[in-house]
Design a protein that fits this description.
Blueprint (H helix, E strand, L loop, with lengths): L3 E4 L2 E4 L19 H21 L29 H12 L21 H13 L10 H17 L20 E5 L2 H20 L10 E6 L4 H9 L7 E4 L11 H13 L3 E8 L11 H10 L3 E5 L24 E4 L1 H4 L7 E5 L2 H8 L9 H5 L18 H36 L3 E3 L7 E6 L8 H18 L5 E5 L2 E7 L7 H22 L1
Parallel strand pairs: 4-5, 4-6, 6-7, 7-8
Antiparallel strand pairs: 1-2, 3-9, 8-9, 10-11, 11-13, 12-13
């Protein structure tokens, strides 16, 4: 079997057996059971050894754009080669150019969590290769996805109106959900449903009517929302990014939202959709779900809650209050691939009324008709998403919950929050630094303070940029940044699946040491 070894040149597969020459005259069997067993054994060994070694590998690779084309063939191979050849090239060329999101020294962006149960579930789903566009095409996959969604909804204590249970195979009236690839998809399909509903409600038919529709979000909302608005056909001039300030910890101001919506009504426009965020990307701001929903209800606008990252924390009772008022919204999405130990891609979307989605997204070609679809007792995945083909994502999510249970998942969240709190306390105890916004979950936004007053802000930004660049060049940690209130800020996101307290402490020691070097150099 192959194994991984770390040295100055990267990771390599070592195999004691000589590489056999492939006989091109043999009958080609791409799923020969013995090949499957052999290849997967080697791949699993690689994965296990990778997780064992990744802590010692530089988090950011020392490569330049285009590096890989110099190492791999520019033309596809004309003949076959042993699987070991691909594995050796993977280790020699691909791994050294990888940013290691799995590293416990990865503190950038948000975590991309993973687990043994999720990897196993994804592997099995890939092997089965189910194309679950309809219930009949994949009965077990369709129903397991619905069960997994209902389980997670119960962990989040979502209202029953968002669950599939109670309806035969998830069909019939009422709410339910679907597992999509990303939050972008969840936003797009709900924007389309809201758009079509507003056009029907107001009698504005056709493309011309779209120019009357307006949508709303905080200026802290993820950029993917504004991209989804364009894809859904909304006029960019009618997309309202409402400024959020430090006085509200950068959360959406419901009063400002109401003023904006009323102004649009007075101008003859139709408020259509509001996006509230639970845990914004820059600072983890939490929009007031209940207040936002109350405002939107006055104007009959769709309310979507983007809980992609921080929604996972709400499986813990002490964080559930951030979702208060969710019973008033129309849809909510959360991505277990961020913080709930389920590998990419996995975004759960729940809606209170599935028919509002399917009315906009349903397709019913003759070749997909069958007794189940004609019965009206099932909702097909194809009718709640952009595409038709549907991956068996529900298996990995179900396996995570079935294997670890609520207690272990809550332990995982609480451990990350505790480590982030510890880091925040270190920052606050050092007068050279400041915490820019209060920590809510496992993200700490901090920076080196300006040495004097406002005149030094630009210099402070430069110093913090230098700090981040030096830290990342070491390969020992990886941090990202944002701009908050016009200030350059470092983001320290705890949550990588293999992170322990020692990794956070080591990162703080490196930050402390590097900061001293920078400030001493200035003096």
């Amino acid at each position: 079997m192959g194994s991984l070894d770390t040295n100055a040149t990267g990771l390599h597969v070592h195999d004691s057996a000589a590489i056999d020459v492939v006989d091109e005259g043999e009958l080609f069997r791409p799923l020969d059971p013995e090949d499957v067993r052999s290849y997967l054994h080697k791949a699993v060994d690689f994965v296990a050894d990778y997780f064992h070694s990744v802590e010692s590998i530089p988090v950011l690779p020392d490569v330049q754009p285009g590096y890989l084309r110099k190492l791999l063939n520019q033309a596809p191979p004309a003949s076959s080669a042993p699987f070991d050849v691909a594995m050796k090239e993977l280790c020699a060329a691909v791994v050294p150019g990888t940013t290691h999101w799995a590293s416990p020294n990865f503190f950038a962006f948000f975590p991309a969590t993973n687990s043994a149960a999720a990897i196993a579930g994804d592997l099995i789903a890939s092997a089965m290769n189910t194309v679950g566009f309809t219930w009949q095409a994949a009965p077990a996959a369709t129903e397991l996805e619905e069960i997994a969604l209902d389980w997670l909804a119960q962990l989040l204590r979502l209202p029953p109106s968002f669950m599939n249970r109670g309806n035969a195979a998830g069909g019939g009236a009422g709410g339910g959900g679907v597992i999509l690839g990303t939050t972008s998809e969840a936003m797009l399909v709900t924007l389309v449903a809201a758009r079509d509903g507003a056009l029907r409600r107001t009698g504005h038919g056709g493309v011309a009517g779209i120019t009357c529709l307006t949508v709303y979000a905080s200026d802290q909302t993820h950029a993917t929302f504004f991209k989804a608005c364009r894809l859904a056909g909304f006029d960019p001039a009618n997309v309202r990014a409402i400024p959020a300030g430090a006085d509200a910890d950068y959360a959406l101001d419901a009063a400002a939202l109401r003023r904006a919506m009323q102004a649009d009504v007075d101008a003859g426009l139709v408020p259509t959709y509001v996006c509230a965020t639970l845990g914004t990307t820059s600072t983890n701001a939490v929009d007031p779900v209940s207040s936002v929903a109350d405002v939107a209800a006055v104007f009959n606008a769709w309310v979507h809650v983007d809980a992609a990252y921080a929604g996972a924390a709400c499986i813990c009772p002490e964080f559930r209050h951030h979702l208060d008022g969710v019973e008033k919204v129309d849809s909510i999405s959360m991505s277990p691939h961020k913080w709930l130990l389920t590998c990419l891609d996995c975004t759960c979307l729940w809606v209170r009324d599935k028919h509002r989605l399917t009315d906009s997204l349903e397709t019913n070609p003759e070749y997909l008709k069958n007794d189940a679809s004609n019965s009206g007792v099932v909702t097909h995945p194809k009718d709640m998403q952009v595409g038709v083909g549907h991956r068996f994502r529900g298996l990995k999510l179900w396996m995570v919950m079935r294997t670890y249970g609520a207690a272990k998942l809550q332990q995982h969240i609480r451990s990350d929050v505790a480590m982030a709190k510890m880091f925040e306390e270190c920052v606050r105890a050092d007068l050279r630094f400041e915490v820019v916004v209060p920590r809510k979950f496992a993200l700490v936004c901090f920076r080196i303070r300006p040495r004097n007053a406002i005149a030094e802000e630009e210099d402070a930004d430069d110093v913090n940029r230098e700090l981040m660049a030096r830290l990342n060049r070491t390969g020992k940690v990886y941090l990202a940044h944002t701009v908050v209130g016009g200030r350059f800020v470092l983001r320290f996101a705890v949550g990588s699946s293999m992170q322990e307290e020692r990794h956070v402490r080591n990162a703080w020691e490196l930050i402390n040491k590097t900061t001293s070097e920078i400030l001493q150099g200035e003096n």
